[in-house]
């Protein structure tokens, strides 16, 4: 309650003579909270970010936001800030995420057409961000960070969530698999990487609301300079919504063709680009399973448990597709016998 009172006092000083009400807008997997600010006189609503300074640093959010805005992406505008207290007053990009919009669409031709349009907009925003890339601006998505992320899988998913102790042989196999995955990931061309460019972090902006072009882009504070396929994996192998592989492949080809015309450093052959995408997916799926397990066991957040089967399915499909990942597939079979996997019909 003390923190909320601090926030209200800061808002009163920042917006003198503007009576307003606060309502929870959203929360994420970090310690940040967001509130929607509604005004008595009907002025446009705002969003206030509450990022406790002892838990969160808002400076990366501010820095990345400036880079992405300069690139042409639609990110929240910073209207007021207090770094010492960890408060930011932001423009409101609305309350409809891509996920909410896509889940309301029917599964027929109209729904797919609508989804294709939304994803085309998202790819346009992503390409703009990537075209603005240059080294030395954002932290490197280097070997150490990629590996630390994958290590969350044995630590939190295997040991803590599944309660499985790996044998020495399995540990050696997993280490070898990580090395193979890293070799492909680190050989990719590099660009700015949002790192969570998916349906919960893209906002549907209605044209009549004067908020600009789709999508609104949020939750970008962890952005890095790294593999060009990473954000595409986040977008198309989304932990929260599943699409037919043919639909994804069509959009991926369209991106690859457009990227070549824009001069982005994609592979000359689509088959090589698609392999990078698949192997980058393996790295991300291992990380996400570890993170979801950690959010539950360490932080008491059980909302992500329902999303684990889809992520495991992505991981299993990729391991089946690439022979070099066969040993990893055997471990997955021990952890999650395939007959209990969630099935998907296309």
Automatic annotation (TrEMBL):
Keywords, alphabetical: Transferase
Signal peptide: none
GO terms for MF: transferase activity
Keyword Transferase tagged: yes
Matches recorded under PANTHER family: N-ACETYLMURAMATE_N-ACETYLGLUCOSAMINE KINASE, TRNA THREONYLCARBAMOYLADENOSINE BIOSYNTHESIS PROTEIN TSAE
Name assigned to this protein: Putative phosphotransferase
